[in-house]
Design a protein that fits this description.
Elements (H helix, E strand, L loop, with lengths): L50 H5 L3 E2 L6 E2 L11 E2 L3 E4 L3 E8 L2 E4 L5 E5 L2 E11 L2 E2 L5 E5 L1 H8 L7 E5 L11 E9 L5 E10 L4 E10 H18 L2 H7 L2 H10 L4 H6 L2
Antiparallel strand pairs: 1-2, 2-3, 4-5, 5-8, 6-7, 8-9, 8-10, 11-12, 12-13, 13-14
Helix pairs in contact: 2-3
Keywords: DNA-binding, Transit peptide
Protein name: Single-stranded DNA-binding protein WHY1, chloroplastic isoform X2
Pfam families: Whirly
Amino acid sequence: MPLRGSSLVSLQNSPSPHPLLPSNSFKNVLSPGTLAPNRKKLSVSCRRSDYFDQQRFASPTPRDSSFASQPPGGPVQSSRVFVGYSIYKGKAALTVEPKAPEFTPLDSGAFKLSKEGFILLQFAPAAAARQYDWNRKQVFSLSVPEIGTLLALGGKDSCEFFHDPFKGRSEEGKIRKVFKAEPLPDGSGHFFNLSVQNRLLNVDESIYIPITKAEFAILNSAFNFILPYLLGWHAFANAIKPEDSIRSNNMTARSGAELEWGR
C-alpha cells in the first residue's frame, strides 16, 4: 500500500573510509642538525560521477508501470521509481499513481509514441478503523482527456466517466465501471465514487470517498505536472540537440511563414 502523502529521497555522498588529512595535521619534530626527509607531493584526483548526468534524461520504460531514467535512444536502465499519492478516510482509501506511456522503436532508430500514459485510481473499502481491504480494491484508469476534465472541474461542477474494458468485443457489457466526481453539499470539496459491476466475478461494488479542497488541489497540481510526461513530450524535449537544429536550418532557407503555409 502506498504511504500517505509524498516521500522525499535525498542522495548524499558517503564519507571515504580513508579520508585525506590536511598537511598540517602532522608535524615533524627534528633535532638540531637533522636533515628534513624528502617530502613527496601528494595529489588527489576526483572522477566526476555520471549519476547526475543520467538523471537529466528521463524516458519511460515501454510496457512498464514505472518511470525509469533513460537517455534518449539509449538502453533501458535498471533503476525504477514508483510514486503515488494516498488519501485515507473513514469508509475508504484512494491511491493515485501515474503510469508511463509506451514507445515503439522504428527502423531508423527513433522511437514513436504508441500508447499514452494514464493515471491509475485504486479504491479500497474500509475493513475496520484505519484498516482497508485491498483485496476488494477496484481500479479505474484516467485517460489524458479525462484528466483534463478533472483539471477544469470547478467547485460546483461534476463529471462522470464510463469504462467498459470489453467494448467492441463479444464480452462487451460484462464489466461496467462508472467514475463520478460530484461537489459536496457544504462546498468543502468533492465526492469521488467508483461503481463496478463485474458479471464475470459476480461483483457489484460502489465505493465513495470525500476529497477536501486541499486534497483536490494537490491532485490538480500533480496532474498538471505529470501530464506532459503522459503524452511523451519529455522524451521529445530530451532528444532535442543543438546540432540537429543547425542541420535542419542548413537544409532549408525557407522562412517560418513558408514552412507553415507550405504544408
